[in-house]
Design brief:
elongated
């Protein structure tokens, strides 16, 4: 079952993003990472994982990489992509809920 792995990776990514954004020095009681920045960082990490997987596959075809490294990179990229799809689906669902609210 991959769901716990996806949840753990998503939690770790958000914690890293929050730690990075917290170091930026936002002052005040509402200090915290901007949601848009966190989403952008997670998207960037997903792209980076995908590119790493592609590089590992290319190296494997050329005979320069170990198969275990290729499988690990592909699994990481798949987990990152699944996490982003889950976040996207939740954002769309939230938007639809807001749009359906009576004023």
């Amino acid at each position: 079952m991959v769901a716990p792995l996806i949840a753990a990776k998503a939690y770790a990514a958000v914690q890293e993003a929050a730690a990075g954004a917290g170091a930026a020095g936002v002052a005040g009681p509402a200090a915290g990472p901007d949601f848009g920045q966190m989403v952008n960082q997670v998207i960037g990490q997903t792209v980076k994982d995908s590119r790493n997987a592609e590089a590992q596959m290319t190296a494997q075809v050329q005979g320069k990489a170990n198969l275990v490294d290729v499988v690990t990179a592909i699994s990481s990229a798949q987990t990152s992509l699944s996490t982003m799809i889950a976040v996207r689906d939740q954002m769309i669902a939230s938007y639809q809920q807001i749009m359906n609210m009576a004023i």
